[in-house]
Structure formats: structure tokens, C-alpha cells
Hints:
alpha/beta; 5 helices; 21% helix
Amino acid sequence: MHYRFATKAQYRLAQITDCHLLASSEDLYKGVQPARYLAAIVAHLVQQQPDAVLLTGDVTQDHTPASYQLLCHIMAPLSCPVFCLPGNHDDVEQLAWLCEQAPFRPERSLKLAGWQLLLLNTKGDTPAGVFMPAEQQWLQQQCEQTTAEAIWLFCHHHPAPLNCFIDKHGQLNQAQLWQSINEQPRIRGIGHGHAHYAYHRRQQQVDIVGCPASSVQFLPTPDWQTVDQGPQWCDWHFSANGEVRWQFQRLNLSKSSNND
């Protein structure tokens, strides 16, 4: 099942990841109110009017129906479609319910002029990611069937080591993922969440882009350290001519209400 956008020269998408919402909008995650931070991003995006929003995993922290209902309430002001993929903290059944609520959509394959965006499921039974055989087959089929000149992947878990503590919860079978990527020369890059910090690097001629969290950031250190830098996300610009750009974004909010 594909979602096809109207043809135009350029598309702007906003990637939001690792929201870690809890049942109440007042609840704290690592010292911040994640609902407040996410709502601030959404209010900004309502003014910017992107073509779509991508939620790339760990949208809630506590797996409760109330946290997914809160997410639905926060995202409701958006007029663009919202697409989701699961992270290690997400409940698959709750995500399925979420994708039936406006403005959410269930598609994992998005067609934007000369681009095909594919949303991968790397959720496993542990916090680490797994690229299951069924997902490998789905990726191969999508790449073979699309007529797009360029393909970009999104997933939750980081696809290559970051040399910090989060690697113990990284992609377990990275070799299989990279084998699938290398078999498809039109795959230009992969965007992900999970790491809670912004970075870009290239591996095997493929761009890897880590999206900062909307909640708190993790420092890329051997031990687990968190820092409150305000709500963050990543803006993506996909052009019909095959060009792609991304920009990490941050909002400056008063921190006082996080400590009320």
C-alpha cells in the first residue's frame, strides 16, 4: 500500500522521533514534560505547513492507551498526513489503532515525484533492533516494484555503530541490513531515531542521518548521560530532481514549567 503525493518540484517533511510521551501531559521523562515539547513542535509545524510528518519510533514511554490517545490529541492540529514506524518502546497494537485516527496514515511506502520513501520496522523483542527476514523481503519487493529514481529509508534503530553506550541497543543484524541496502543502488540514505542526538555521516556511499529527539538528548559517551536542550526534530527537503537536504531544528522554550 503506497501513499502518493501530488507532483511538485520539492517536498518538505518533518521527522519527529523519541517523543516518550506518558499517560498524562504533566508526566516527566528524564526531567522534562515530553508532551509540552512535542506540542511546541506541532504548533510550529502548523505554521510551516510541511507536506507530511514522520514519527520514527518511541512515540510513547509507558505503552499505555492513554499515552497514544495523548499523542493523537497533540498531533490533531496538523493538516498534513502523519506516518509512523515502531520503536522499541512502542506497542504495535496501539500503533495500529493510532494509524486509523486522523491525521495519521497506515502506509509505509511514500511516493514523492522521483523519490520513494520506505518506512522500515526494526522493532524486536528487546530494546535492540532487528531486521527480520519478512522486512528484508518487503524492502526488496518495494525496491523492485518502484519506478522512482531514488529511494530513502527511515527506521528507528541506528544502522551502524556510534561508539557510545546506545550501541548495546543498536541494530543486532546490521550485516543483513547493509546487504539489502547494497543490493539496491538507488538507496541514497537512511534516517533514524533512537540515538537521541543529531549527526550525519556516510557509510558505503550511503548517507546516515540521526534525528534528535523531541524530548531529551543523549550524549554520545560510553555511559548514559542525558541533557535537556529543548524540543528538536529534523526537516527534510526532497526535490523531484533527486536532490535531498536535511536540517536539524530546535525550539527555545522556558524550562520553568518542567519543574513546576
